[in-house]
Amino acid sequence: MIGQTQYFRDTWAEIDLDALYQNVKTIRDGLPQETNLFAAVKANAYGHGDFQIAKEALKAGAHGLVVALLDEALALRQKGIKAPILVLGLIRPTDAVIAARHHISVPVFQVQWLKEASQAMEGGEPPLKIHVKCDTGMGRIGLKHEEELKEIEQFIQNTAGFEFEGIFTHFSTADQASEEYYQKQLAVFKKFVSVLETVPKYVHAANSAGALCHDDSLFNAVRVGIALYGLCTSQERPTFNKGKQIFSLHTRIVHVKKIQPGECIGYGAAYQAEKEEWIATIPVGYADGWLRKLEGQSVIADGQRADIVGRICMDQTMVRLPHFIPIGTKVTLIGGQETGDFITVEEIAEKLETINYEVTCTINFRVPRIYKRGGQQVEVENKLFLGL
Ligand SMILES: Cc1ncc(COP(=O)(O)O)c(C=O)c1O
């Protein structure tokens, strides 16, 4: 439910819509006029909330959206998004009719798929918009030979019900310092495009790293995800200009106690105090995506760093405070407080030995999302319940 304003737990994620707008605008302004910006809002906009992010990104200059699943595209249509939407993952040919009916573009790389989709079409729906996917080296989905591309082009030309709207590929090393593999993929893709009788409306290859680091990858559209969210797409490429992180995660202390030397905390009694200590409990745990591996990570409580001690529980976590801090005090797990200290998504990713993408995607929708503009709350999404 959109516009949901109620939630009853003291753990929430904040999304800074002003920063998102600025990030999108900066990326848009950095692209040539003719390059269409598609905002990647799959996986609930990398955990930020697809509908709110889609609306803001489109307002800030994105031309369209990309998602991974037909269900994600349909959910956005259902909420009133009218902009072009491309599904990146393969859909069932029997579902082609649903995609066509809702003006959702889909990837294709096999004539067999088109034949099955053609049989499943009912006849009265608008043409299904096809983006032909080329596998130039990612090894995931896509055609690999020019003959397959020509066959698909001809099939679409000769068969009612389809529109050849785009051709695309995906780079696997655009974020790396070495150019070699990237250049190979680019050359293969250019060759694919060159054998087409008619070049379709959209030709696209670049993700964030491509769009920000490789001018030769832009064609006339780019699919940008991670950079919208102000997260670093590439540690290796010095040309990359990071935006502002729009995601933060907060909670409040629900219990504080002083423990004595020798007293233990949490499952397995894995933490034992060496001296008298103040321990706070915060209502967030691995069931929210605040994973057990974050034991030992610091949080910001009352402007100061404090370490997580003991094993992280399913719904609660314990923190060793520098001194007594009262119940109700805001604790920041990702992002900053007024004092200036800041926990980046990358800091959490490093602790988790993973990439920043996985961090925001992992904070699940048991945690309400609060959308802010000018520092003020403008929307709340709480997927747990539909209100009283
Ligand atoms: C095919 C495709 N295009 C674009 C993107 C967006 O990538 P990024 O978030 O690195 O910009 C992804 C993300 O995984 C993708 O799979």
TrEMBL record:
EC number: 5.1.1.1
Cofactor requirements of the protein: pyridoxal 5'-phosphate
A Pfam family: Ala_racemase_C
Alphabetical list of CDD domains matching this protein: PLPDE_III_AR
Binding site for substrate: R140, M314
Modification sites for N6-(pyridoxal phosphate)lysine: K42
Record pathway: Amino-acid biosynthesis; D-alanine biosynthesis; D-alanine from L-alanine: step 1/1
The keyword Isomerase is annotated on this UniProt entry: yes
Recorded superkingdom: Bacteria
Catalyzed chemical reaction(s): L-alanine = D-alanine
Active-site positions on this chain: K42, Y267
UniProt cross-references to Gene3D superfamilies, sorted A to Z: Alanine racemase, Lyase, Ornithine Decarboxylase, Chain A, domain 1
Residue span(s) of domain Alanine racemase C-terminal: 246-372
PROSITE patterns: ALANINE_RACEMASE
Keyword Isomerase among record annotations: yes
UniProtKB keywords: Isomerase, Pyridoxal phosphate
HAMAP family, per the entry: Ala_racemase
Family to which this protein belongs: Belongs to the alanine racemase family.
Function: Catalyzes the interconversion of L-alanine and D-alanine. May also act on other amino acids.
NCBIfam families tied to this protein: alr
Full protein name: Alanine racemase
Highest classification ranks of the organism: Bacteria, Bacillati, Bacillota, Bacilli, Bacillales
